[in-house]
Specification:
The complex is a heterodimer of chains A (about 90) and B (about 230). By secondary structure, chain A is mainly α. Helices cover about 50% and strands about 0% of the residues of chain A. The termini of chain A are close together. By secondary structure, chain B is an alpha+beta fold. Chain B has 2 domains: about 70 residues, Helix Hairpins (Orthogonal Bundle); about 130 residues, Sandwich (Immunoglobulin-like), CATH 2.60.40. The chains are: A mainly alpha (about 90), B alpha+beta (about 230).
Chain lengths: ~90, ~230
């Protein structure tokens, strides 16, 4: 299973997630969840192909900014235990 | 912030609140106009002993006072809808802050700024210093820059709360399992107060919100890290 203890991204020109037209409503839970899934899918795909996972950093930044930390910790725990409901 | 015995709206600190105040005045003027018109008509009809046969079963009058209210409602609805959609704009935010409601305090997460997380409890009366505000001051303020669009992600960990700051025109429900988004841009520096606005238990009245809005240059110097 992928290492879910993602490293803190390096300091850079990151501001905050921009407006995502896929999620225009006030409820941003899908935005948070989708970027979390995208991050882990990206890690999985690029690791399998032996490529650098640096492009996955964007998804990490987005979900790290949008998702409450307790949610992320809960999901990471589920991934570790192999009981995460989402499809990665 | 509100002063003692205030019954009007607080001074605006964001463009949204400026629009809301203008709309409030607009709607209130229409309400006054209609109330005085109706009261005047009632007064006239109740104080006369005469009967006007032209008023009974008057089709023209029925038509007028059916169409005219519809026009008035449209005059109220159009600016209202405009402001409603303005409040939903995200406006390319510069900073994202997460506010998580608990019984009975708020947790704030600055994950764009080094992952700072802190709880914000109301200062108990015994801890108040001269000049502190009873039931409003907290131990850790939320410090934010002015003139920058800020996105608030609001949720709750246990029961329903509502994150409300009247001077910014903000009131967004904190619902467990749902992540509500709202944005605002402050136009002037200062300390602004809000309170939980959804009954959440015995201490619902004791979980205030304090925002300290400072110029961006000072915010960039990093006082937020010296909380």
């Amino acid at each position: 299973m992928l290492d879910v203890e993602a490293q803190e991204p390096p300091k850079g020109k990151w501001s905050t997630p921009p407006f995502d037209p896929r999620f225009p409503s006030q409820n941003q839970i899908r935005n948070c969840y989708q970027n979390f899934l995208d991050y882990h899918r990206c890690l999985k795909t690029r690791t399998r192909r032996g490529k650098s996972t640096q492009p996955c950093e964007y998804y990490f930044r987005v979900y790290h900014s949008l998702c409450p930390i307790s949610w992320v910790e809960s999901w990471n725990e589920q991934i570790k235990n192999g009981i995460f409901a989402g499809k990665i | 912030m509100a002063h003692a015995a205030q019954v009007g709206l607080q001074d605006a600190t964001s463009p949204i609140m400026e629009e809301l105040i203008t709309f409030h005045d607009h709607a209130l003027m229409i309400i006054f106009l209609i109330c005085f018109l109706v009261l005047y008509a009632l007064f006239l009809t109740l104080t006369t002993k005469l009967t006007n046969t032209n008023i009974s079963d008057a089709q023209e009058m029925e038509t007028v006072w059916t169409i005219l209210p519809a026009i008035i409602l449209v005059l109220i609805a159009l600016p209202s809808l405009r402001i409603l959609y303005m409040t939903d704009e995200v406006n390319d935010p510069s900073l994202t802050i997460k506010s998580i409601g608990h019984q009975w305090y708020w947790t704030y997460e600055y994950t764009d700024y080094g992952g700072l997380i802190f709880n914000s409890y109301m200062l108990p009366p015994l801890f108040l210093e001269p000049g502190d505000l009873r039931l409003l001051d907290v131990d850790n303020r939320v410090v934010l820059p002015i003139e920058a669009p800020i996105r608030m992600m609001i949720t709750s960990q246990d029961v329903l709360h509502s994150w409300a700051v009247p001077t910014l025109g903000l009131k967004t429900d904190a619902i467990p399992g749902r992540l509500n988004q709202t944005t605002f841009t402050a136009t002037r520096p200062g300390v602004y107060y809000g309170q939980c606005s959804e009954i959440c238990g015995a201490n619902h009245s004791f979980m205030p919100i304090v925002l300290e809005l400072i110029p961006l240059k000072i915010f960039e110097m990093g006082p937020v890290f010296t909380l």
